[in-house]
Design goal:
The complex is a heterodimer of chains A (about 110) and B (about 110). Chain A is built from no helices and 11 strands. Chain A is mainly β. The chains are: A mainly beta (about 110), B mainly beta (about 110).
């Protein structure tokens, strides 16, 4: 079974631009979560989608948004990029049952904002 | 918000030594997960724990879910060079996965030649 895939792997943008990152979950997984990883703050939860609905959101400004499609693929968007948005953005998918609650991560998208 | 304190921050060990790291939380979690992350890659799930007191092994790795549900530890026996990396604990406070994971800051494992 293929793992979680994320595209692109690397991205360089300038301040003020916007960016869209893509995530394809493991086949059969309907929950997709996004995380931001930085050296200073570590891994922080952005939001989680299930059946095309955002079910939970972390403590990030409204510039960070996302969506999920009917095939469970997800995208996240960051508008008006700031230098501090430079980070590794990780997507994780989960089968989402009460017995099993394991999240499997993709390789991440490394975003650099200049 | 919830915080996870993971310790130690880094470990310098000799090949063949056993390793122990732990996480403590200010609040209760229903699920504890342990991940390993290599440079340039996403975290890889090592062990998942769902019940207080549960002790689970995966090869040379053993993890336990603390009885108070506020802590967990991970042990690695007879370390080998490929164990090098960053180990993260993660907790989740609701069954069913509606909430995101709360991560510790990580333990850097370095094996000295």
């Amino acid at each position: 079974k293929a793992g979680v895939t994320q595209t692109p792997r690397y991205l360089i943008k300038t301040r003020g631009q916007q960016v869209t990152l893509s995530c394809s979950p493991i086949s059969g997984h309907r929950s997709v979560s996004w995380y931001q990883q930085t050296p200073g703050q570590g891994l922080q939860f952005l939001f989680e989608y299930f059946s095309e609905t955002q079910r939970n959101k972390g403590n990030f400004p409204g510039r960070f948004s996302g969506r999920q499609f009917s095939n469970s693929r997800s995208e996240m968007n960051v508008s008006t990029l700031e230098l501090g948005d430079s980070a590794l953005y990780l997507c994780a998918s989960s089968l989402l049952s009460r017995e099993v609650n394991e999240q499997f991560f993709g390789p991440g998208t490394r975003l650099t904002v200049l | 918000g919830q915080q996870l304190n993971q310790s130690p921050q880094s470990m310098f060990i000799q090949e063949g030594e056993d390793v122990s790291m732990n996480c403590t939380s200010s609040s209760i979690f229903n699920t504890w997960l342990w991940y390993k992350q290599d440079p340039g890659e996403g975290p890889v799930l090592l062990i998942a724990l769902y019940k207080a007191g549960e002790l689970t092994s995966n090869g040379r790795l053993t993890a336990q879910f603390g009885i108070t549900r506020k802590d967990s530890f991970l042990n690695i026996s007879a370390s080998i060079p490929s164990d090098v990396g960053i180990y993260f604990c993660a907790g989740q406070d609701s069954g069913g996965g509606a909430d995101g994971l709360t991560f510790g800051k990580g333990t850097h494992l370095i094996i000295q030649p």
